[in-house]
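Supplementary Data S3. Sequence and structure tokens for construct A.
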Amino acid sequence: MRAITIPEPGDADSLVLDEVPDPVAGAGQVLIDVVAAGVNRADVMQRLGHYPPPPGASEYPGLEVSGRIAAVGDGVEQWQVGDEVCALLDGGGYAERAVAPAEQVLPVPQGVSLVDAAGLPEVACTVWSNVFLVANIQPGQVLLVHGGSSGIGTMAIQLAKAVGAHVAVHEHPHVELAKRGAVIATSLRARPATEKAAIVAAVREHVWPLIEAGDVRPVIQSRHPLEHAAEAHREMEASGHIGKILLTT
């Protein structure tokens, strides 16, 4: 299969399209024929050599994909070959095939195209885990979003408004944020598999109905062919995008 590799850390041109062996679904995993992959800041950090994949994860970049299940590993009963899904990965999304833990796979929401669904798993899980599970935002509270035009920012704004919270992208003149604010720093990739599975399950229960009702939607800035991954990274690093940047196979 074709995949984007990083032979040496460096600028966007260090992303190399190469022929590599197909991954194989192990026990509790599914193999996905990738249609699209989301581009994230973590991928840029990995390319620069600052964010290595966790032990056992694919060395190729890419933390979320959408596509069709090509095979299921032992013990997987909730997914079947041919299912259209999107998934949160530990790595390996910039490829024509990728492996995901079955518990980190989600159905493509009704009303969302298979390609655009690649822009949902990472942002939905990041926002739900930070804003709802950790910060426990409530109706009437104010969420301050830095980088409101990013993929995570656009999702955070939509979800907060959907539950009745107020959103301030830079400052809110009527709220004393400094006196009652909280700054919480977390990451998603390094969390234990059981914790990520719980987050994915919560997203399916709480976020997917909002998407299918049309209250929340993926905001897509651009779609680039896999071989133009360097162009996609340059677009992200320019920080002028609104929403998600995707790679298509």
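Construct B, processed identically:
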Amino acid sequence: MASDIIIHARQELVKRLDGYELNSPDLFQRVVNFIEKTMMPVIKLHAIPGHANINSEEPLLDEPAALGMLIDIFSERGYYAVVDVHHVEIPETMDLATGKIFCRIKKVYRIIIRFKGSEIRRG
């Protein structure tokens, strides 16, 4: 049940963040730098609506633990983060004899960040 999952969610989050710092400090720092340099400027532009969609092809996110770190960092800071990996086929070559098209797969990380937006006074 969902209620069972969220009972100790905060404690588990803190454990994971401590584990990242102890077990993978280099990767953890690279994820923090990516957030600060690439994501936060976009998020700041969306301060009023409180919702930012960011698409990234950042190779750092291919590392197995990086997405979990990214989500946990945002969660700890009061944001709601969701990541979806979209695979896009990009045609590269074609076999003229058979007509077969050969594609490479491009990974696009679709990152949705939600937070309480700014209240704007109206009228």
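The first helix runs from residue 2 to 6. Residues 20 and 26 are 9 Å apart (CA to CA).
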